[in-house]
Fold this protein.
Amino acid sequence: MTSIRPTGLSPHLFVLGTDRAVEFYREAFGAVEVFRNTLPNGVILFVELQVGAGRLLVSEETPELGALAPPTVGGSPVMILLEVDDPDAVARNAIDAGAEVLMPVQEMFWGERYGVLRDPFGHRWSVTTAREQLTPDEIVRNTGY
């Protein structure tokens, strides 16, 4: 068996309104545009963003390629986890930029401060930071089950 050694993982989001999405991710999460690939006819193929230590690709929905945005398919089954130093501040930025709160940031039984947002393009984001490292037994005890 060949050894697999990934060198990175970058979510690729499809949206309706690439430029608006890039602006939202900049305002909400501090994203910085690294590269933009635009076709000769002006269509944006993708925009690569730096978000913290990670990369995020954003492209316009392209149905003929099977690249569909959440509104087209009735939502997204995927959640993007964004680890930050201050999830409350990041959630406020995202809300101010147009995100919807699905679950307010709060202390969780697994030892993190955690909340869930939906961006204006239908993608779900959890913002979190570890507060304490709990063992699996401690997490189960904290659930009350």
